Design the sequence.
């Protein structure tokens, strides 16, 4: 079986995209329903911007280091 | 949406025995949502996936033990720092900052940066040119089998024991923070590490360490950001520490309080920090501990290896942002449920008053996570802690496997086996290393006092090893007997001083130069004396022997080695330029926080 070289950055992109999507979705859910978690500075909606940043960074890595992109 | 209520459809009768495996019965500090659990589960799935994927590329010994020596500077550099950045490192130093203030940052700056750059710029050429697989192998080439076997056996033995101690400490934290049973934490995380390192060898360990490094930063970075927003910035934090904390100003200065042992909470003087920590202990760890050196040896060229250390130095300098800063913030923002200021205490006090609801210094980072992180982000923070633990453990077992196979099994037990045989031995030894670590963890669980002894034991070997390697690398006259006796006497000096202070605590005034010195200072000075003894003994014994011919020392000793010419690169890719930038940053940080 031929070994397909996959960069570690691709794996990192995949996990960041999944995490980003999950956390961003939860942030949107919180915003829509108004059910904020009981934590300090919940009004800053970190799940949305941190999750969104992770999603964007993850997608960048996935596309940039996709095995077929070589 | 993400609550645990969806599990209510599962039969309670089936669920309870299963939960007993996970839960310790201790009231946890953190309540994880199912989104948090999903984040942690995805992390475990990913590290195992990487291990299975890389199994196809670990068929030769060079692949399995050295990752094919084809890692880029970035991958080797991040892995180099990640292997050092264990969860206990994160939580322990955040706790130490809460207890001692910004003095703890010395372990990230002077206690790391000069040694890392020295490894890359000065020592790495010899490690790379001589094509060694391990630091004990360098000793074998330079000083012969005797010194190499002493170093290999002590390293292999202590590495798995330390791995077990760390495993125990991590399981204890998981019990306190998450309420997980210790057996569950130990078995799940160690089996995951055993699986991906056994399958993919060093390449798998390194790939996962890079992943873990990213997750540590992404998971922990929000805590200092939120903390600074809450207190109103760095200047506001300093004002609150000065006003709220007894001796507050001493929590904010790294050097101005180290003129005398009694002037700072660590009971340490600047000579201990500069010469003990900055030279002996730090160089012993960063330049000769194979756990970290192995990562840089996997680089694809000398330039990549050097750049790996430079890249690592920048990230090491930045780590205090996610470790030291949360510790300082914890001093002024953590509150009890009734709104009063929370005061963290020593673990011994927590253990003595289990019903008082106290928290130990080491819990400052998880407490800060609970304060700021909502579901999902909290899972990410906990994943950062688990990732830190696993990267440290993978570092231990992959280094153990290489040293056992190359420096003990091959030369002493089976010299002429095939390459595939050594790979098979490496896989089995990796697995065995994890099993021994688990055994060590349970041994410590039965008698926690052993933990102090094991941690002290590890420190006995590292500093003298650096002393001997340094003399051997820079003096052509060092002989085989000199190296062996230097290592042995240096180690015995360290053991002797430790035992002396243990038996007669007043001896600390001699070992650490002051009756006001505390345990931390004693460790630094003990390291310094043992390096000096190792170097002096190596030098003196060598004077009475016959040095090896210079032509035999090519690739091993400065002045007898032809350095390879490297291809010219644009100035912004030059490792010396970035070394200079790292030194400037290092000096600036120390002056700024003087």
Sequence:
């Amino acid at each position: 079986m031929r070994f397909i070289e996959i960069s570690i950055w691709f794996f990192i992109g995949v996990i960041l995209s999944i995490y980003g999507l999950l956390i961003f979705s939860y942030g949107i859910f919180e915003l829509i329903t108004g059910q904020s978690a009981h934590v300090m500075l919940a009004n800053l909606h970190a799940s949305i911007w941190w999750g969104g940043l992770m999603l964007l960074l993850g997608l960048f890595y996935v596309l940039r280091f996709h095995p077929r992109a070589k | 949406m993400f609550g645990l209520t969806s599990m209510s459809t599962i039969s309670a009768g089936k669920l309870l025995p299963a939960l007993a495996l996970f839960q310790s019965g201790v009231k946890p500090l953190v309540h994880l949502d199912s989104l948090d659990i999903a984040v942690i589960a995805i992390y475990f799935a990913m590290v195992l996936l990487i291990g299975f994927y890389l199994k196809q590329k670990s068929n030769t010994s060079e692949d399995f033990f050295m990752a094919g020596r084809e890692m880029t500077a970035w991958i080797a550099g991040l892995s180099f720092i990640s292997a050092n950045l264990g969860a206990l490192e994160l939580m322990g130093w955040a706790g130490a900052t809460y207890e001692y203030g910004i003095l703890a940052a010395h372990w990230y700056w002077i206690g790391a940066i000069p040694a890392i750059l020295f490894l890359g710029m000065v020592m790495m050429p010899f490690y790379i040119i001589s094509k060694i697989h391990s630091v004990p192998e360098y000793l074998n080439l330079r000083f012969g089998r005797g010194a190499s076997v002493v170093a290999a056996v002590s390293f292999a033995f202590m590495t798995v024991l330390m791995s077990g101690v760390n495993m125990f400490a991590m399981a204890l934290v998981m019990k306190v923070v998450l309420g997980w049973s210790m057996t569950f934490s130990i078995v799940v995380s160690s089996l995951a590490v055993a699986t991906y390192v056994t399958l993919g060898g060093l390449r798998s360990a390194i790939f996962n360490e890079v992943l873990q490094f990213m997750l540590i930063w992404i998971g922990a970075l929000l805590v200092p950001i939120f903390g600074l927003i809450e207190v109103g910035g760095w200047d506001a934090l300093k004002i609150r520490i000065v006003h709220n904390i007894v001796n507050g100003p001493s929590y904010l200065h790294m050097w101005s309080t180290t003129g005398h042992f009694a002037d700072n909470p660590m009971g340490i003087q600047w000579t201990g920090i500069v010469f003990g920590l900055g030279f002996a202990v730090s160089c012993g760890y960063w330049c000769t501990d194979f756990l970290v050196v192995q990562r840089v040896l996997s680089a694809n060229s000398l330039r990549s290896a050097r750049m790996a250390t430079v890249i690592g130095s920048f990230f090491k300098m930045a780590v205090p942002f996610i470790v030291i800063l949360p510790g300082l913030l914890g001093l002024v923002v953590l509150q009890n449920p009734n709104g009063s200021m929370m005061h963290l205490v020593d673990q011994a006090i927590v253990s003595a008053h289990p019903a008082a609801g106290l928290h130990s210094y080491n819990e400052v980072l998880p407490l800060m996570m609970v304060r700021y992180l909502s579901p999902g982000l909290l899972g990410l923070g906990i994943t950062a802690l688990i990732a830190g633990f696993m990267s440290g453990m993978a570092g231990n077992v992959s280094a153990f496997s290489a040293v056992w196979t190359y420096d003990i099994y091959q030369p002493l037990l089976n010299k002429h086996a095939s390459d595939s045989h050594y790979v098979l031995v490496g896989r089995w030894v990796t697995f065995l290393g994890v099993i021994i670590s688990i055994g060590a963890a349970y041994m410590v669980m039965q008698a926690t006092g052993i933990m102090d002894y094991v941690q002290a034991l590890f420190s006995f070997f590292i500093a003298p090893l650096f002393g001997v390697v340094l003399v051997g690398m820079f003096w052509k006259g060092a002989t085989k007997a000199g190296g062996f006796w230097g290592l042995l006497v240096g180690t015995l000096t360290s053991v002797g001083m430790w035992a002396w202070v243990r038996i007669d605590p007043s001896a600390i005034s001699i070992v650490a130069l002051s009756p006001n010195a505390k345990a931390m200072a004693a460790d630094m000075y003990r390291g310094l004396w043992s390096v000096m003894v190792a170097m002096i003994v190596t030098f003196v014994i060598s004077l009475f022997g016959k040095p090896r011919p210079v032509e035999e020392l090519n690739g091993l000793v400065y002045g007898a080695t032809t350095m390879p010419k490297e291809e010219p690169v644009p100035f912004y890719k030059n490792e010396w330029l970035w070394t200079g930038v790292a030194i400037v940053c290092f000096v600036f940080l120390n002056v700024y926080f003087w």
Notes: Chain A touches chain B at residues 1, 3, 6, 8, 11-12, 14-16, 18-19, 22-23, 26-27, 29-30, 36-37, 39-42, 44, 46-47, 50-51, 54 (CB under 8 Å). Residues 8-69 of chain A form one domain. The first helix of chain A runs from residue 8 to 33. The CA atoms of residues 29 and 58 of chain A lie 21 Å apart.
